[in-house]
Amino acid sequence: MAAQAAQSGTASPAGQLANQVHELASRLDDTRESLKETRESNHENDSLILTPMAILIGILAAGGALGIVFSVRDQRRASQLHALSVSAEVGTQRRIEESYSTFLDESQKTLTLVNDTLGLAKEASVREARSMDLKAK
């Protein structure tokens, strides 16, 4: 800068302007180089950041797909379990109905046999009473 100040006193205004343009062009080139290096560095950093993010997103997407598949399977199993429990309950009700029906039929047979036995006992006692009356006469 001191050299430039010394030259600016002795040089013409056109020379000073040319020096400033040259210096500005040099600074512009340096800035462009720096920007280019920064871009390349950022591109490498972006790659370092985006690759793990892409892997993570892929893992999460696979987990979501597996979750959906397992959810559908669980729903299907739950509906199968419900159908099996309903059919088991229907079978249980049918067996209970059959056992009550059988119990009622057997009770009716037992009652009929008891009534028939009582009827025979009554007839026998009536006959015995007549036989005793006949013997008594």
Write a brief structural summary.
With 137 residues, the chain is an all-alpha fold.
Provide structural commentary.
This protein has 137 residues and is mainly α. The longest helix is centred in the middle third of the chain and has 124 residues. The N and C termini lie far apart (171 Å).
Which structural traits does this protein have?
137 residues; mainly alpha; 0% strand
What's the helical proportion of residues? over 70%
DSSP strand (E) fraction? Answer: under 5%
Radius of gyration: 56 Å
The overall pLDDT, averaged over residues, is: 87
Strand element count: 0
**Order of H and E elements:** HH
Structural class: mainly alpha
Anisotropy-based shape = rod-shaped
Distinct helical segment count: 2
Low-confidence stretches: none
> Ends: how far apart?
171 Å
Tell me about the largest β-sheet: none
Number of domains: 1
Which helices and strands appear, and what pairs or packs with what?
Elements: H1 2-10, H2 13-136
